[in-house]
């Protein structure tokens, strides 16, 4: 089977997987599309949203559908890095035992690592996670453990701020995407969510997602997609302009209300952030049956890949929720291609 | 003995002026003739008093009508130390048939020293008033012989007018340029977007396809106010519904441009270039409102 046929087959599987998730978690099509892109581009995902809008259900459904070994941990204020690596207990004979923790339990077959309420965990835990996410390995018991297939899904709610620890910039940068989950808008979806008993039992709902078993082939697939999907010199120029605009938006004519634009940003997108952006854009082009990336691919993934990488000057920090989406929109509306 | 006598006589000479409550009093009036109906006549009264004496302003004549033909228009009192300067401005409304002697009435100025009042009378003042014209008015062929004064000649202001015109012209040019910078004339520019694009396309051939596509992209971006992409056409049509009629051509343009710029192996042919020119001409027609 040649590579093109293989890519076509995989695409059909990916789209089938997307349809299945959309049937399980309704009304969240844009978020589902972004998660699919992150999964097939091998990037970690951070979900943010209000309480009870389906963040956890969505991630569980994706993990179930992908297959592979799955681990989940709840972020709490007293969680320490060691709790992820091992746990100690007395066995039935009264002897102390040390067993591998959630990260090490599945060894190198660990696939989906789901960190619920990540902002409730301490910075020490975030630090451990940094290495696991960036290098796909950790050091424990005097040796390195590698997780070639690890995919981190994390979520946090944006309502509560008490007893939470804001994720450091370095930790945020390691997530390919930060996806906002909003409540479904349509009346039909809301009616379904209220009255259809299928959505009342989330365990059964998630268990209904068929395991595609594609997980351990994702690395190979992602590599093939990244190699096969082409980018033209004009697209490089466009991406470069977008990148520069995240550092000096005023030079591209972006103007926000009541903002001194030269003072707005402390840091723009990082090189890692831009490489994630291109990876996600290539994956989108593949899902859209193309062998080349278009500006619209970059535009589609730009908000989710960039919003959490732009750091505002503290004097504009209190308007972050308003200014960041406006800035992203302004950049996309001002940078032309070709 | 002689010296003593001189001293006594000197003291006696001074004693009278020390007791006088008003050390100086004068009524200053202008010429007592040559007035006509409507003239204003100023009168200034200057009084200097001893230090413990003050003027009673209530004793001065009140502003307003004095009698049938005389008005008091203004009363001003200016005090400098113990010197009072009272300025009265009368106006005469009397039309005499011949030169007539009239009198500004006198009055009494009251000064107070503690509870004691001191009167200082201002004498009446007589002047003559002339008629404006003869008793029997002559008529000329042109009508009434009395005519208004010749208006004063105007000052030469040609230089100032030139300066003003030049300044206004410069100000108008600056305002226009500022308006242009602030985008106050978008419609004017928007109406010639595709005209300029067509002019540029006329100098290009299919070998310059990249440049030609860029020209049309630029025109569409300027019309849209921001970069226009295939996936934003819906929004563009909402703002510019007249372009919906060439939806198919615009769709072709963006698809073609995407393939040309972002995928490999695209070779432009003459037909593509002609199609691009046709699209630009259609846009020009819509821009002119003839379609």
From TrEMBL, chain A:
Give residue ranges for domain ATPase AAA-3.
Answer: 44-177
SUPFAM superfamilies from the xrefs? P-loop containing nucleoside triphosphate hydrolases
One GO MF term: ATP binding
Q: Which residues form the ChlI/MoxR AAA lid domain?
A: 267-314
Signal peptide segment: none
Q: What is this protein called?
A: ATPase associated with various cellular activities AAA_3
Q: Which organism is it from?
A: Methylobacter tundripaludum (strain ATCC BAA-1195 / DSM 17260 / SV96)
Automatic annotation (TrEMBL), chain B:
Q: Which domain of life is it from?
A: Bacteria
Keyword terms of this UniProt record: Membrane, Transmembrane, Transmembrane helix
Residue ranges of the TM segments: 160-185
Protein's UniProt name: MxaA protein, putative
Q: Does the keyword Transmembrane apply?
A: yes
């Amino acid at each position: 089977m040649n590579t093109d046929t293989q890519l076509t087959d995989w695409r059909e599987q990916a789209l089938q997987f997307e349809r299945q998730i959309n049937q399980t978690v309704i009304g969240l099509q844009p978020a589902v599309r972004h998660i699919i892109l992150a999964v097939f581009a091998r990037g970690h995902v951070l979900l943010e949203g209000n309480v009870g809008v389906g963040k956890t259900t969505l991630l569980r459904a994706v993990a179930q559908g992908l297959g592979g070994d799955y681990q989940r941990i709840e972020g709490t204020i007293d969680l320490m890095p060691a709790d992820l690596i091992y746990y100690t207990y007395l066995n039935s004979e009264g002897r102390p035992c040390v067993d591998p923790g959630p990260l090490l339990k599945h060894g190198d077959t660990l696939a989906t690592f789901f960190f619920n309420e990540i902002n409730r965990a301490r910075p020490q835990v975030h630090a451990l996670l940094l290495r696991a996410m960036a290098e796909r390995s950790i050091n424990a018991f005097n040796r390195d453990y590698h997780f070639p297939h690890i995919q981190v899904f994390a979520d946090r709610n944006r309502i509560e701020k008490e007893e939470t620890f804001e994720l450091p910039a370095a930790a945020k940068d390691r997530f390919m995407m930060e996806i906002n989950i909003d409540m479904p808008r349509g009346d039909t979806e809301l009616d379904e969510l209220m009255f259809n008993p299928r959505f009342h039992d989330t365990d059964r709902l998630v268990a209904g997602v068929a395991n595609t078993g594609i997980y351990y082939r994702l690395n190979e697939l992602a590599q093939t997609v990244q190699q096969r999907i082409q980018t033209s010199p004009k697209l490089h120029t466009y991406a470069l302009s977008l990148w520069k605009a995240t550092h000096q938006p005023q030079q591209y004519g972006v103007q926000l209300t009541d903002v001194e634009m030269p003072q707005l940003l402390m840091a723009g997108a990082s090189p890692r952030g831009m490489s994630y952006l291109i990876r996600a854009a290539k994956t989108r082009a593949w899902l859209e049956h193309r062998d080349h990336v278009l500006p619209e691919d970059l535009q589609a993934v730009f908000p989710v890949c960039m919003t959490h990488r732009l750091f505002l000057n503290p004097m504009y920090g209190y308007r972050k929720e308003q200014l960041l989406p406006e800035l992203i929109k302004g950049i996309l509306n001002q940078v032309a291609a070709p | 003995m002689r010296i003593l006598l001189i001293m006594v006589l000197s003291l006696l000479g001074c004693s009278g002026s020390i007791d006088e409550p008003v050390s100086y009093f004068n009524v200053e009036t202008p010429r007592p003739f040559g007035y006509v109906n409507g003239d204003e006549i100023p009168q200034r009264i200057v009084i200097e008093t001893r230090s413990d004496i003050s003027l009673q302003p209530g004793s001065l004549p009140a502003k307003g009508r004095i009698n049938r033909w005389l008005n008091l228009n203004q009363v001003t009192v200016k005090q400098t130390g113990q010197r009072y300067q009272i300025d009265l401005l009368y106006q005469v409304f009397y039309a005499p048939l011949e030169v007539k002697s009239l009198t500004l009435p006198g009055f009494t100025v009251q000064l107070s020293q503690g509870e004691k009042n001191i009167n200082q009378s201002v004498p009446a003042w007589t002047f003559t008033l002339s008629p404006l014209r003869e008793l029997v008015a002559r008529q000329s062929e042109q009508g009434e012989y009395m005519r208004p004064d010749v208006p004063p000649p105007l000052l030469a202001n040609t230089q100032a007018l030139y300066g003003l015109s030049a300044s206004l012209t410069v100000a108008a040019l600056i305002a226009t340029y500022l308006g242009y910078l602030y985008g106050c004339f978008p419609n004017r520019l928007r109406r010639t977007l595709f005209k300029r694009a067509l002019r540029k396309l006329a100098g290009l051939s299919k070998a310059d396809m990249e440049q030609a596509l860029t020209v049309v992209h630029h025109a569409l971006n300027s019309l849209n106010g921001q970069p226009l992409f295939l996936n934003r056409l819906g929004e563009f049509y909402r703002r510019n519904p007249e372009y919906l009629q060439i939806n198919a051509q615009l769709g072709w343009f963006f698809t073609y441009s995407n393939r040309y710029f972002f995928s490999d192996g695209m070779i432009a042919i003459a037909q593509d270039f002609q199609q691009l020119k046709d699209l630009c001409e259609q846009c020009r027609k819509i821009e002119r409102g003839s379609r």
